[in-house]
Structures are given as C-alpha cells and as structure tokens.
Design brief:
The complex is a heterodimer. By secondary structure, chain A is an all-beta fold. Chain A is built from no helices and eleven strands. In chain A, the strands form two sheets. In chain A, strands 2, 4, 5, 6, 9, 10 and 11 form a seven-stranded mixed beta sheet that branches. Chain B is globular, with a radius of gyration of 14 Å. In chain B, strand 8 and strand 9 form a beta hairpin. Chain B contains no helices and ten strands. Chain B is 0% helix and 50% strand. By secondary structure, chain B is mainly beta. Classes of the chains: A mainly beta, B mainly beta.
Chain lengths: 118, 113
C-alpha cells in the first residue's frame, strides 16, 4: 500500500518547451504532496509543498512562475516546468504525505522523472 | 540534514562486514529523523526512523543512533550485502502538520564481494 506513481519517468525535449510531470497517489488520498529536485551526486532539495485545493508553498529561491504546481485532487499533483532551458535539466521527485494506518512513513516517494533539456 | 558540497562521500566495505554511515543535522528543533536508501534512477526508499525521545532504534539488520547533544545521526547496517550498495540519506523534520523533510548530503555505500 501507499504507492506513489510519477509520470513520465524520463523526458527529453527542446529548450523553450514546457514540460508537465504528474505525481499520483495510487491507493491513498494525499492532502499534501512535495516536489524535490536532485542534481547528480547531490541530495534532494525541496522545491515546494503542494496542498490540495490551495496554492503551493515554494521554498526560498524557487521561482513559482517557472515551476507551476497544481494539486487539483487528493490523488494528483502536477509540476510544470515552463519554458524549460538546459539548466532545468535534473531529476525531479515527488512524495505524498500519508496519514493513514498501516504505514509509519510520513512521506511516500515516487521514482522520479529524469528531465533533459537540449 | 546538512546538504552541502558537490561530492558524495563513499564508504567501501567488504561483504559481510558491518557498515556505519554518519549524518549531521543543523536544526536543533527537529524531532523526527529518517534514513533513506536511494538506488540509481529511483526515488528514496524508507529504511528506518527515530523520534527525538529515543536515542536508539533497531530494525532488521539496521540500527539508528541519535545523539541530540551534538546533532548527529548514524545508521548501522549489520552483515552488509551487495544489495545494500546505494546512496544513503538522512533527513530530519518537525512533527508538526507538514513533516517537511530536510535531507542530508548523502553517503554512497559500496559493498565489495
């Protein structure tokens, strides 16, 4: 239980393109989802906290107009990288907050999306 | 955790030996700590957690030690196996409504056969 699915797992696109990444909680409802960014050989850096039905809370230094987050339902949050450029190339990982029984983990993670901008 | 630098420290151990991975955190108010394992191209996988009212917790082949005085966390893996090879991250959080995690810089564990 408590599975988080991320799609796509890998995307390559041209500079200037906008890319949407989906994060779904498959068997539970998540009022809160988190978006992380990870560069090679580095740690996960929290980008924003996404709350269902309200605006996302962005961490300091993260451009909200560049990284659009939508959390329209209890099982889906999307991250759109607008007008992506090569410096946006990274590994993007989402997680979902789980508050139900059967899990002692506060966040369940997806398997990430590798974004490469040419 | 403290996420600094561009180079992952590496711990190389012989298969069957015990491994100890260390982590420092900076927020003295943090009251919840987790260790994650991350394999290449995948998301973090939960290993074990500990709350600030404890200083030791054991799981299957893993033990987490917490020293709040010096803000230090360690993960001990007994009888390390090749499948344990991965990058390990600690994370700390506040058990408020968000459980927002702050990840440490990570350690790569290489298990020699």
């Amino acid at each position: 239980g408590a599975v988080v699915s991320q799609h796509p797992s890998w995307v390559i696109c041209k500079s200037g393109t906008s890319v949407k990444i989906e994060c779904r909680s498959l068997d539970f409802q998540a009022t809160t989802m988190f978006w992380y960014r990870q560069f090679p050989k580095q740690s996960l850096m929290l980008m924003a906290t996404s709350n269902e039905g309200s605006k996302a809370t962005y961490e300091q230094g993260v451009e909200k107009d560049k990284f659009l987050i939508n959390h329209a339902s209890l099982t889906l949050s999307t991250l759109t990288v607008t007008s992506a450029h090569p410096e946006d190339s990274s590994f993007y990982i989402c997680s979902a907050r789980y508050t139900g029984r059967g899990s002692n983990q506060p966040q369940h993670f997806g398997d990430g999306t590798r974004l490469s901008i040419l | 955790g403290e996420s600094v630098g561009l180079h992952l420290p590496t711990l190389s151990v012989q298969e069957g030996d015990n491994s100890i991975i260390n982590c420092a955190y900076s927020n003295s108010a943090s009251d919840y700590f987790i260790w994650y394992k991350q394999e290449s191209g995948k998301g973090p996988q939960f290993i074990i957690d500990i709350r600030s009212n404890m200083d030791k917790r054991q799981g299957q082949r893993v033990t987490v030690l917490l020293n709040k005085t010096v803000k230090h966390l360690s993960l001990q893996i007994a009888a390390t196996q090749p499948g344990d090879s991965a990058v390990y991250f600690c994370a700390d959080a506040l058990m408020d409504s968000s459980y927002k995690l702050i990840f440490g810089s990570g350690t790569r564990l290489l298990v020699r056969p």
